[in-house]
Amino acid sequence: MTDESLTPRRIADLHLDQVAAHNPLTAAWLGLDHGDDRLPDLSPDGFAADADLARSTLRTLDAAAPSHDPAEQICARLLRERLTAELALHDTGENYRQLRTVGAHVEQVRTIFSFMPTATDADWAAVAGRMRTIEGALDGYRATLTEGMNRGLLAAPRQVTGVISQLTDWTGEATGPHEGGGAGWFAGFVASGADARMRPELDEAARQATRAVAGFRDWLRGTYLPAAAGTPDAVGRERYLHAARHSTGAQLDPDDVYGWAWEEFHRTLGEMRAEAERVLPGAPLLETLHHLEKHGHAVTGETAVRDWLQQLMDEAITALDGRHFDLSGPLRKIESHIAPAGSTSGPYYQGPSLDFSRPGRTFFPTLGQDTFPTWQLVSIWYHEGVPGHHLQLARWAAVADRLSRYQVSEGTVSANIEGWALYAERFMDELGFFADPERRLGFLDGQMLRTIRVIVDIGMHLELPVPADSGFHPGERWTPALATEFLATYNGSPAARRTNEINRYLGWPGQAIGYKLGERAWLAGRAAAKRRHGAAFDLKTWHMKALSQGSLGLDDLLDQLAAL
Question: In the chain, pLDDT over 90 holds for what percent of residues?
Answer without folding.
Answer: 89
